[in-house]
Amino acid sequence: MEDKSRQLVQQIAEMQEEDAVKLAREMLDSGYDPVKLLGHCREAMEIVGKRYEQGEYFLPELMLAGEMLKAIGGMAKPLIKQDAAGSKTAGTVVLGTVQGDLHDIGKNIVTFMLEINGYKVVDLGIDVPVANFVESIKEHKPQVVGLSGFLTLAFDAMKKTVEAIREAGLRDNIKIMIGGGQVDETVKNYTGADAFGLNAMDAVSLCKRWVPA
Amino acid sequence: MSSSSAVSSPPALYEQRHRRLMDAIELRQPDRLPTILFSHFWTAHYAGMTCREAMYDYERLAAAVKRVVLDLEPDAFQPVHSLVAFGPTMDILEYKQLEWPGHNGVAEDVGYQYLDAQYMAPDEYEDYLLDPSGFMLHTYMPRVAGALEPLSQLPQYPGVLHTRITQSMEAYARPELRRALETLIRAGEEMQKMGAVQSRLVQELHDLGFPVASHGTTHAPFDVAADYLRGSKGAMLDLFRNKDRLLSLMDRLSVLIPRAGIAGVKAVGGNMVFIPLHWGLDGFMSPKQFTTFFWPQFQKVLLALIEAGIYPHVLWEGDCTSRLDVIKDVPAGKCVYFFERTDMAKAKQALRGTVCIRGNVPASMLITGTQADVRECCKKLFETAGDGGGFILDGSVGIPDEAKPDNVRAMFEAAKECVY
User: Fold this and answer.
1) What gap in Å lies between CA A202 and CA A70, rounded to an integer?
2) CB-based contacts of B262: which residues, under 8 Å, 6+ apart?
3) Residues in chain A whose Cβ is within 8 Å of chain B
4) Which structural domains are found in chain B, ordered by start?
5) Please, which residues bridge with residue B338 across strands?
6) Nearest chain B residue to A155, by CA
7) How far is A184 from chain B (nearest CA, A)?
8) What is the pLDDT of residues B232-286, one digit of tens each?
9) Is the CB of residue B400 less than 8 Å away from at least one CB of chain A?
10) A106 with A148: CB under 8 angstroms?
11) What are the b/e assignments for B180-212, b being 16+ CB within 10 Å?
12) Among A57, A149, B62, B329, which is least packed, fewest CB within 10 Å?
């Protein structure tokens, strides 16, 4: 089994989707502990994340890794007893694409990278009204809020969202990062966010700086 | 310098602007820095129209474009109607791939957005590869336009021949197919109405001295696969799951895309084509994936267009700095590379003597900055990207919808001061 678990980590990390899913199935069928199996998946995702950071892997690899994780998780999770499922998180991030913008690839990749780095991510989806961000912050008490937007119309929506968070008296306790195709230092200043990022690694670095694990 | 101050008649101004643009494209040093005006909804905003109105009111949009062109005096402009004024036609078609202002509860004054989705399933590759046109007609069009659903009933002509051709005519009289065909005619008439307004405007602005910078739009093979067929997620997964089929599909597209692009440009007697790229940028694909799945097929498209006497203006969205050494492999003086966030000094270094570059006053600056910021930025671009010619000034993705008019004016005025 030791060999098989090493093999599984390697297959996931090497993007051998069919082999990895098949092996995970076999391991579970032969009684392998599903919690341990998910641990191997996490280990593999850490390798994937590192390779992404190092510029060896790109979005297609992250996307495929996410698919493998979903497939294997889908097989393992039903076999796990409730009390064993909980795990410690590094912190909570509320994330969404701001109102008026329907793009979600960047946001999804950021979600994925934050999750494999141990953060709990509350993904509010796309075209998220300002009020939903405020409500979600009240409910989940995140340390970080991420505002995503691909279009230039997102600048104003980001600004309004930051203002609404301030007006709700929630601004002091959180850090706000913005990301997307058109954002830069100028947009960061315009919207009143704390920082901007151009890719998922920037988002992870910011969260690590703000909320050390 | 002397030539830019000497002429004033519209034909002479046309000639001067056209020469300035072509000097830049063909890598000669022009008299001064040329500009292209490229916008989607900014023009409408400038004239006090909403995005919705721009999509539906051809005449008001024409008046807006004319006003903007006369106010800013660009060296060439990209016609706006074909970029935005398709609201009525989309209504007729019950078009499903866009969300647009005033439709389905979308606000009246936001731009349209493409809906990223899977429009071709992985198990439909074989269908597409066997018969791309058949797939588009029987499967794709019914999928993306509600009113065209009955096209799925069109006869399967590769297997319908000789007297069976006459028998196949029966299909066209079926009520649902008849309705779809009538819809196509109505949509065609609507597009002709729009096209007539645009052609009249282009002629009018030509007579006032302003050349056109684009006579049509075409695509890169991977973008067609990712944006319009498989969806972004599907396409990324296909790099692993359906690699060979994806490559075969793009082989077809690298022939079919220029065929359509050339036909479109020639139909209006033009020689410039606009190609926005969505998936070429750094960070999306690895360098190896880029040189396997993106560039070779796109390069074929570019070469076919160039061979047909057409100048591609390629909008390399995002930051493509790491791609420069690969994408420089095109014939000299035949293309324009329009960069959004690519480092222009590095672009100049890599592409000097090969490709005219265009861009890239940041969208954020045009929207939130000051006129002084913009002037400074233009001056700096002129010094780096404009050194020796081969550079056209533009916004990073043209003029963003929300840009401040004063900032845009500052950009066009700054170019007039950038004299060689």
Assistant:
1) 24
2) B304, B305, B308, B310
3) 15, 17, 56-61, 63-64, 67, 100-105, 151-153, 155-156, 181-184, 186-187, 189-190, 198-199
4) 2-417 (3.20.20.210)
5) B315, B358
6) B364
7) 7
8) 999 999 999 999 999 999 999 999 999 999 999 999 999 999 999 999 999 899 9
9) yes
10) yes
11) bbebbeebeebbeebbebbeebbeebeeebbbb
12) B329
**B286 CB near a chain A CB, below 8 Å?**
yes
Q: Which chain B positions have a beta carbon within 8 Å of A63's beta carbon?
A: 233, 236-237
- pTM value surpassing 0.80: yes
β-pairing, B311-316 vs B336-339, is parallel
- Residue B37 is classified by DSSP as E
Q: Taking Cα atoms as reference points, which of B309, B188, B284, B150 lies closest to residue B227?
A: B284
**Do the chains contact at A102 and B362, CB–CB below 8 Å?**
no
Q: Is residue B400 pLDDT above 60, yes or no?
A: yes
Q: Classify the phi-psi angles of B189: left when phi > 0, otherwise alpha if psi is within -120 to 50, otherwise beta.
A: alpha
Instruction: Out of B233, B317, B368, name the one closest to residue A155 (CB).
Output: B368
Task: Set out the domains of chain A in order of their start, with CATH numbers.
Answer: 2-84 (1.10.1240.10), 91-210 (3.40.50.280)
Nearest chain A Cα distance for residue B162, angstroms: 48
A-chain CB neighbours of B110 within 8 Å are: 100, 153
B365 reaches A (C-beta below 8 A): yes
Angle between helices B405-417 and B58-72 (to 10 degrees): 40
Quote the CA–CA distance of B53 and B48 in Å, as a whole number: 10
Helices and strands counted in chain A (H then E): 9, 5
